[in-house]
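Help needed: design a sequence for this.
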């Protein structure tokens, strides 16, 4: 890794956070940190642990080594970083799965559609309890779409 400093890691974290529309609070909630800890990372008062680098990389949609390349992140810590980072939270992955379930609802007999949609709506409500602020809009859109289809099924059977 080149030790030429392109930008301090804290400045890069702040730039990526703002570019992706996150607040310090939303990043803190997603990573299990305090907002103050995120502020300290962005101002360079502290360096993130390897775990936090991996979580930040996943949040920003890049690999851990790309996140810290050309920054002041300690070389000894860089050597311990994994090559890849997970990209989806549990809620985001479950939303994708529920979207697939919605596609097969139309193939069900009309009498079974309302039950299937009610089950999907209950799963969305459960995810809403566990979701974080950034995912609330996606959950709300999914709830509205399922509720609309449930109303359509109900009016078609009446």
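Sure. Designed sequence:
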């Amino acid at each position: 890794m080149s030790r030429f400093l392109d930008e301090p890691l804290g400045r890069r974290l702040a730039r990526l956070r703002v570019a992706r529309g996150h607040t310090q609070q939303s990043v803190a909630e997603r990573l299990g940190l305090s907002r103050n800890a995120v502020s300290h990372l962005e101002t360079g008062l502290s360096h993130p642990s390897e775990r936090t680098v991996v979580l930040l990389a996943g949040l920003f949609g890049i690999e851990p080594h790309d996140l810290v390349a050309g920054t002041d992140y300690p070389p000894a810590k860089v050597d311990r970083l994994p090559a890849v980072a997970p990209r989806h939270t549990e809620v985001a992955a479950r939303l994708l799965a529920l979207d697939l379930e919605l596609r097969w609802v139309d193939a069900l007999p009309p009498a079974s559609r309302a039950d299937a949609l009610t089950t999907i709506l209950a799963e969305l409500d459960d995810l809403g309890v566990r979701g974080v602020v950034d995912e609330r809009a996606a959950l709300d859109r999914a709830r509205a779409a399922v509720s609309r289809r449930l109303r359509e099924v109900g009016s078609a059977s009446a």
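The chain has nine helices and no strands.
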